[in-house]
Amino acid sequence: MGAILNGLELEQLQQLVAQVQADPEAARSLNRWSARVRWLGGFKGRAYIRNHSFLIDEPADLVGKDEAPNAVEYVLGALGACLTVGFVLNATKHGIPIRNLEIALDGEIDNILTFLGLSEEGHPGYREIVVKAYVDADADEGTLQKIWAETVRTSPVGNTLARSVALRPELSRIAAS
Predict the structure, then answer these.
(1) pLDDT tens across 39-73, in order?
(2) In this structure, are 143 and 100 located in the same domain?
(3) Which of 26, 57, 116, 150 has the greatest number of C-beta atoms within 10 Å?
(4) To 10 degrees, the CA torsion angle through 89, 95, 99, 102?
(5) Does residue 107 sit in the same domain as residue 92?
(6) Domain span at residue 142?
(7) With b meaning 16 or more CB within 10 Å and e meaning fewer, what string describes 141-175?
(8) Is the pLDDT of residue 177 over 80?
(9) Average pLDDT of 70-85?
(10) How many domains is the chain built from?
(11) Do 139 and 78 have their domain in common?
């Protein structure tokens, strides 16, 4: 195994970057992702992604069993995870060792009553998400701010949340088993 920085194998990272720079079509398969969620009763479900799965549930004050985070909490977690990966990637590309990194996120739903069908005002999605990064790394403040700005600018999940995304909902009726 070659040199490792921030838990990443540098040669493997450099090969990936070089491959997609030389042939952008090689990255095409990295653009498509999928998931499936199966209802388990009540407000509980299980999401299946590649070889992984996780539970989704609502807190007790929203009539769930509070056995797992709910979907909007997973959105915060997904954004935090994406920013963590992006910061580590960008710091590693700049040769900066990270000793500690934590991303704290707080979001506020615009109007939960629209989700419950009790209001037509506003929308049921996040109005604002505040994201704070806490980092201990071998770099000056200006360099870390530059890496953070690049991380936020290039975050796939951050961009998904900040831009309009075409949703194409479809419903297929299945026979009861």
Answers:
(1) 999 999 999 999 999 999 999 998 999 999 999 99
(2) yes
(3) 57
(4) -30
(5) yes
(6) 70-177
(7) eeebeebbebbbeebebbeebeeeeeeeeeeeeee
(8) no
(9) 97
(10) 3
(11) yes
